């Protein structure tokens, strides 16, 4: 708003100055062309001829001779003595100043104008005699009429300049209004045209950003509804089936077996709900990280030890020799966020690994590089970019045993980006996938 006000203010100032200067020049030129009879140079010649003519006549005949000559001019000519000059001033309403009287006495030509009535007079003293020749009144176009015309031209010009300034803004606002109307009707693909006035560009970009975010939220909501309706039904159906079997089963061993199955299904439901809640939180607002310094080696060992206890069929190998040798075991991160990053990466590795899972941390160019790799079938090159999108899973041959709704890696990417880092995928040395997480130390 401040920039818009300054631009309009500066435009109006420049317009006022420019139009005023232009009209003044135009008015001056026009006045010189239409009112050439009022030019002093012309009347000096007229006074010279009249003075020479009057000098040829006695003083008592000069008035009569001037009256006869005035019929040949388009305006009256009179001869006044110095005493009648005051009466002349009172009659015309145009007073003569002291410097004008002195200039007149020295033989100069003075001019008097009545802009309201469009009248002008020219006065010059006779040479060698007392008396003042007066030419006029000479009628010209009244200034009031000219002022109205030029004032009208000024405001018309001002309107043109303001219109030229306002039109791009108005056009941009109409485009934005149309886009908002279409968006409100359900066309979530529509975006406002960014080829607008610079004063509207930020507003248009904010609208487009908002529209894109709303579109993502609606898409996420649809995908979430779809995922919930499919993925949550499976463990619920298994729990219901196990309950029916338990009611009718007398064998204690089979009952314990189905109770274990129900417990696994409940854990699966709990994991799915947790992922949904975390992802929904990202859609509502950006989590505020609590960055502190932690011992990264101890932090990783604590997480991996839990997996060693719960997943004894896998070999978990942690390599932090680079950190220990460099005496840089401490790192800054959000404990809860980084815990979700490593936990999701390890769970992903457990799903697809055959036997071995490796975790390593190194320092490269003042950044920490965490690698989690497995010896599974790996991830095809063409799917490595899309796998971090929410609700995206690999083909059924890889995902049948894994379950999940495709939110784990999407959550990982969001937390890594909040740490000003990035995550990439490459092939592990022994086959399988290797996830590389990089963030500032």
TrEMBL record:
Class of this enzyme: transferase
Reaction(s) the record says it catalyses: ATP + protein L-histidine = ADP + protein N-phospho-L-histidine
UniProt GO MF annotations: ATP binding; phosphorelay sensor kinase activity
InterPro entries in alphabetical order: 2C_sensor_his_kinase, HAMP_dom, HATPase_C_sf, HATPase_dom, His_kinase_dom, HisK_dim/P_dom, HisK_dim/P_sf, Sig_transdc_His_kin-like_C
Primary localisation category: membrane
Residue ranges of domain Histidine kinase in the record: 227-441
Regions crossing the membrane: 148-167
Name of the protein this chain belongs to: histidine kinase
Organism (species): Thalassotalea algicola
């Amino acid at each position: 708003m401040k920039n818009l006000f300054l631009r309009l203010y500066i435009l109006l100032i420049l317009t006022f100055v420019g139009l005023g200067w232009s009209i003044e020049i135009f008015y001056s030129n026009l006045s010189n062309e239409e009112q050439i009879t009022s030019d002093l140079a012309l009347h000096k010649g007229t006074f010279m001829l009249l003075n020479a003519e009057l000098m040829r006549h006695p003083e008592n005949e000069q008035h009569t001779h001037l009256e006869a000559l005035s019929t040949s001019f388009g305006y009256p000519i009179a001869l006044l003595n110095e005493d009648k000059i005051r009466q002349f001033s009172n009659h015309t309403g145009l007073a003569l100043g002291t410097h004008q009287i002195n200039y007149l006495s020295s033989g100069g030509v003075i001019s008097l104008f009545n802009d309201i009535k469009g009248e002008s007079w020219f006065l010059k003293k006779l040479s060698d005699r007392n008396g003042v020749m007066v030419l006029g009144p000479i009628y010209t176009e009244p200034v009031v009429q000219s002022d109205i015309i030029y004032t009208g031209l000024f405001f018309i010009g001002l309107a043109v300049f303001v219109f030229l300034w306002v039109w791009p803004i108005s056009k941009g606002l109409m485009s934005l209004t149309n886009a908002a109307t279409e968006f409100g009707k359900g066309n979530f693909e529509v975006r406002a045209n960014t080829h607008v006035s610079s004063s509207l560009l930020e507003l248009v970009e904010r609208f487009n950003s908002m529209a894109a975010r709303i579109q993502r939220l609606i898409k996420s909501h649809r995908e979430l509804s779809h995922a919930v309706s499919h993925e949550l039904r499976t463990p619920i159906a298994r729990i219901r089936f196990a309950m029916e079997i338990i009611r009718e089963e007398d064998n204690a061993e089979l009952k314990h077996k189905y109770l274990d199955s129900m417990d696994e299904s409940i854990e699966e439901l709990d994991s799915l709900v947790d992922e949904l809640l975390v992802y929904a939180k990202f859609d509502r607002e950006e989590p505020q990280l609590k960055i502190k310094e932690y011992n990264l080696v101890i932090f990783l060992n604590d997480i991996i030890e839990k997996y060693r206890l719960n997943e004894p069929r896998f070999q978990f190998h942690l390599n932090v020799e680079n950190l220990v040798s460099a005496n840089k075991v401490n790192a800054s991160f959000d404990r809860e966020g980084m815990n979700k990053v490593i936990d999701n990466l390890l769970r992903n590795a457990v799903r697809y690994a055959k036997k071995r899972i490796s975790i390593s941390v190194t320092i490269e160019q003042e950044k920490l590089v965490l690698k989690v790799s497995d010896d599974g079938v790996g991830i095809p090159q063409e799917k490595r970019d899309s796998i971090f999108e929410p609700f995206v899973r690999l083909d059924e041959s890889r995902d049948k045993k894994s379950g999940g709704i495709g939110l784990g890696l999407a959550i990982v990417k969001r937390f890594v980006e909040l740490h000003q880092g990035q995550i990439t995928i490459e092939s592990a040395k022994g086959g399988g996938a290797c996830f590389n997480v990089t963030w500032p130390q």
